[in-house]
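Ticket 4471: requesting a sanity check on a complex prediction with fe (ii) ion. Repro inputs:
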Amino acid sequence: MKYSNDSSRIDLQQAYRTFSDFLAAHAKEKDPGFDLKISHTCRVAALCAFLCEEEGLNQEERDLGELIGLLHDIGRFEEIRVKKDGFHIPFDHAEEALKILDDGWLRRFIKEDCFDGIIREAVLFHNRFSTDGIQDQRTRLFADLLRDADKIDNLRLKAEEKENVMFVFSLPDQTALNDSFVSEDVMDALMNQRCVRLNDRKTKLDFYVTVMGSFFDLHTSSARRIVQEERYEERLYERINPSLDSTKKQMDRILRSIQSAYIA
Ligand SMILES: [Fe+2]
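Returned C-alpha cells:
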C-alpha cells in the first residue's frame, strides 16, 4: 500500500487518549512537578510537530515527530515518584520510558510497529550528551528534532515559570543560586561554545548555566531562531543576581559567549 504525503499511519487522537489513560494510571498521588511535566510534554510534542514542518517533513513524519515528543518524558512520572524520597537517587528517565513502552504501552499509543525503532532510539537518546551513537540517519534526524524541542521548552520553563514551580526537583532555590559560582570545567565548556557534560556539574550554578549552554547543541536553525526571538538566554541571565563580583563576571562572560554564537 502506498501512502501519499498527506496520509499518516499515526492516529494522534488515539495517542493523546492513551496519554490521558497513562496519566490517570500514574496520578494516584499528586506529586510536585506532575502538572509541570504534563504541560512540558504537550509543549514539546507541539514544538516537535512545528520543527518537523519547518524541516519540510511530510504529514506522517510530522505526526511521528509529535508522537515522539508526547512519549519522550513518559519515564519522568515514575522519576517524580522515586525522587520524592530523595532528590539525589540516580534515575535515568529515558531508560525508564523504554521499560514503560515495552511493557505494552507503545502498542496502545500506535498500532503499527514500523516506527518502533525510531521511537525507541529517539526517546533513549533524548537525555544523552549527543546523538552520535545513532547509526541510522532518519532516526538521528527525529532524535535531534526532539532534543531541540525539549531544550527550547526547558529554556522557556527556566525563563518564565515562577520560582516555586521552576525549582521543583531540577534546581536549588534562588538564594542558593545567587550565592553560588560556576566551576572551572563548566566555564571552560561554555567559553568554548560547547554543551556542558552533565558529570562536570559541581556547583548549584553549574546546573543552571548548563541549561543556558543548551543553545550550543541546537540542531536546527528554526530552534535557534525561536530561542533568540524569545530572548531565553538573556532572560535566564537576568534571573540571577550573583552575590559575588567574580560570579557576576562569569555570568557576563557566559552570556557574551552565547550571544556571539547567535551571530555566528
Ligand atoms: Fe523533556
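Notes from triage: The mean pLDDT is 90. Leaving this open until the requester confirms.
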